[in-house]
């Protein structure tokens, strides 16, 4: 599939990236730099084959990977890869891990010991994922620490207590500053005692504090947030905190955590940046240029090895994320499905240097379905009463997050917007003819409707004989048929 459209209008960004690459390489050569990692999420309708993803990680210079679960295919693909692994336990498993030592022992046996013995380089177990988010309304307050404690005990029982460490990825909202100064940082008042319990346990057992820091979310949430402060150019009005000066949000946020740890007696606890990145679509501030600017700026910033004013030295970090995921919840915002530095099919969205002598390399051996798209029939008028329900149906079951104000497809006309929705549903259902019906409003075409920055995708092949999405389409149609037959039977009774 041709991809020239993808680079349309990006010459300036590519030139800037090239300069940043050389800066990164020069800085990285001069000092010892902590290896960069990537978050590998799998909430996708048609995920790339795990072996393909592992090769892509290695080709692009990643040395470590963070997972959100312990999927068998994913873990198996990491065997003998040399990649350091942080394997995750989802929040919905915390209660089981907290209430049953037997469950914790079984999980460690199946998902740590088993794969370590088979050549997977597991270094951390991430117990939960941002369990104390205020939006969870305290759902995991009672189970997170007991789960951490039981998993640690299970690791010790398995003889892995000094080889594999526990951690708990937390959102940066677990700490705060009463002012804009990092030195006023402390843990959130409603969870202060719980945080100290967890922090002490991590300190005692050789674990690490993992935090997710997102300048983009601050910009998204607050229209008055200074844009320059999100980036690393030094152009923002500085925040002066004693002898320290902060010109970017990352350093200030990171040091707010360091101050919170220090004033509670844990100033030397290792810190991992579990997630940091910038989305490319789904919001007016989520685009290719800003994502490249932020991520390359962050990489260049940490490549100096200077760290932050309160924590000098290398920064241990995982970019968020590796690949777009079209099934992530969009409750936080439409941008949630667009954090990847690669598209769903493994194409680099922009150039980024990770310390290699080259930019990002695309995934290898990706196979696509046929070059065909589902679009609105030219003969259908825009006032057709069937359109509204059809569009709603397509977008509710597929992905329309690239449509909207100042998004990648924000410049489409009305007909093209409708076609985008239809095609998204059609591709997600493996180009099945049934999925391009829409009450006879749509038709299949071999002419690519992509324009400028708006890509009408073609779905990739999956290993299974047919997608579960296709089963859903046919099940829905079967259900409709049964309902019609039932109605007919009732009318004759």
What this model shows, in words?
- It catalyses: Hydrolysis of (1->3)-beta-D-glucosidic linkages in (1->3)-beta-D-glucans.
- This is glucan endo-1,3-beta-D-glucosidase.
- One of its GO terms (biological process) is carbohydrate metabolic process.
- Its EC number is 3.2.1.39.
- The protein has 493 residues and is α/β, with parallel strands linked by helices.
- Among the domains are: 4-62 and 169-337, TIM Barrel (Alpha-Beta Barrel); 373-481, Methane Monooxygenase Hydroxylase, Chain G, domain 1 (Up-down Bundle), CATH 1.20.58.
- 35% of the residues lie in helices and 12% in strands.
- It contains 13 helices and 15 strands.
- Strands 5-4-3-2-1-13-12-9-6 form a nine-stranded parallel beta sheet.
- Helix 1 (11-30) runs parallel beside helix 10, helix 6 (144-157) packs parallel to helix 7 and helix 11 (387-397) packs across helix 12 (414-428).
- It is globular, with a radius of gyration of 24 Å.
């Amino acid at each position: 599939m041709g991809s020239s459209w993808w680079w349309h209008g990006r010459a300036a960004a590519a030139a800037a990236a090239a300069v940043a690459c050389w800066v990164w390489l020069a800085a990285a050569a001069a000092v010892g730099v902590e290896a960069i990692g990537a978050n590998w999420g799998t909430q996708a309708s048609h995920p790339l084959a795990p072996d393909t993803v592992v090769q892509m990680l290695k080709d692009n210079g990643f040395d470590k990977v963070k997972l959100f679960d312990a999927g068998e295919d994913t873990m198996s693909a990491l065997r003998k890869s040399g990649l350091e692994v942080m394997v995750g336990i989802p929040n919905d498993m915390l209660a089981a891990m907290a209430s049953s030592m037997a469950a914790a022992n079984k999980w460690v046996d199946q998902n740590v010991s088993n794969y370590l013995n088979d050549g997977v380089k597991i270094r951390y177990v991430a117990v939960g994922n941002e369990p104390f988010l205020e939006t969870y309304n305290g759902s995991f307050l009672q189970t997170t620490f007991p789960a951490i404690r039981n998993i640690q005990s299970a690791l010790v029982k398995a003889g892995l207590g000094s080889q594999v460490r526990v951690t708990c990825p937390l959102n940066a909202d677990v700490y705060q500053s009463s002012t804009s100064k990092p030195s006023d940082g402390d843990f959130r008042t409603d969870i202060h005692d719980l945080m100290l319990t967890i922090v002490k346990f991590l300190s005692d057992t050789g674990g690490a504090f993992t935090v997710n820091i997102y300048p983009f979310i601050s910009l998204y949430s607050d229209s008055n947030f200074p844009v320059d402060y999100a980036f690393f150019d030094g152009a923002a009005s500085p925040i002066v905190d004693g002898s320290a000066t902060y010109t970017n949000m990352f350093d200030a946020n990171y040091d707010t955590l360091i101050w919170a740890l220090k004033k509670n007696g844990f100033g030397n606890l290792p810190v991992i940046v579990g997630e940091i990145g910038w989305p490319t679509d789904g919001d007016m501030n989520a685009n290719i240029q800003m994502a490249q600017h932020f991520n390359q700026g962050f990489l260049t910033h940490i490549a100096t090895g200077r760290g932050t004013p309160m924590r000098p030295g290398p920064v241990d970090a995982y970019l968020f994320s590796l690949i777009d995921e079209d099934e992530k919840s969009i409750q936080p915002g439409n941008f949630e499905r667009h954090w990847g530095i690669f598209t769903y099919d493994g194409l680099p969205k922009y150039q980024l240097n990770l310390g290699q002598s080259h930019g990002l390399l695309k995934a290898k051996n990706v196979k696509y379905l046929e070059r065909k798209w589902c679009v609105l029939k030219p003969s259908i008028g825009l006032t057709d009463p069937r359109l509204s329900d059809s569009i709603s149906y397509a977008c509710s079951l597929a992905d329309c997050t690239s449509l909207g104000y100042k998004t990648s497809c924000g410049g489409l006309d009305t007909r093209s917007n409708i076609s985008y929705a239809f095609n998204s549903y059609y591709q997600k259902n493996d180009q099945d003819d049934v999925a391009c019906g829409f009450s006879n409003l749509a038709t299949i075409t071999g002419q690519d409707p992509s324009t400028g920055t708006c890509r009408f995708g073609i779905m990739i092949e999956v290993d299974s004989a047919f997608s579960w999405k296709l089963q859903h389409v046919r099940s829905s149609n079967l259900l409709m048929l049964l309902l019609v037959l039932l109605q007919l039977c009732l009318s004759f009774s």
